[in-house]
Amino acid sequence: MIVPLVPQTSLGLSFLASSLQKEIMEALFQAGSILMKILQQKVTAVQAELEDFKKEALKAIRYLEDAFCQMSGVLAQQEEQAARVKQRLREEEDRGIVRNKVLTFLLPREKQLREHCQRLEKMLVRSHDPQRVIKKSQAD
């Protein structure tokens, strides 16, 4: 009996193709598995870096918060000090205004008193002038 070669060849090729397909699938599975392991390692490394970054960022935020609180405290003290200085300046200006009013009142009065003292001194000097006493007695 003559067996046609085509069916055997097609059966052999089918088997060969199936076997080859299995090997390709296994190779692809192994390659995929290797790639998954590599990707998993990279993901783990990125997650570790992310955690480190997160810790550093939180540390920096805490440092900034502390610095901000200190600056706020210093600013509050400076604002209080500025308010006290402004109050003292207002009080000093008020005293200056009062001084100016008092001086405005006293200076003309002082001038009047000086002039009056000068007149009195002249009168005193004249009353003790020996020449005047002699002239006065001669006139009597």
UniProtKB/TrEMBL annotation:
GO biological process entries: female gonad development
Highest taxon of the lineage: Eukaryota
Keyword set, alphabetical order: Coiled coil
Keyword Ligase recorded: no
Name of a matching Pfam family: DUF4715
InterPro entries: DUF4715
Coiled coil: 36-95
Protein name: Coiled-coil domain containing 182
Organism (species): Rattus norvegicus
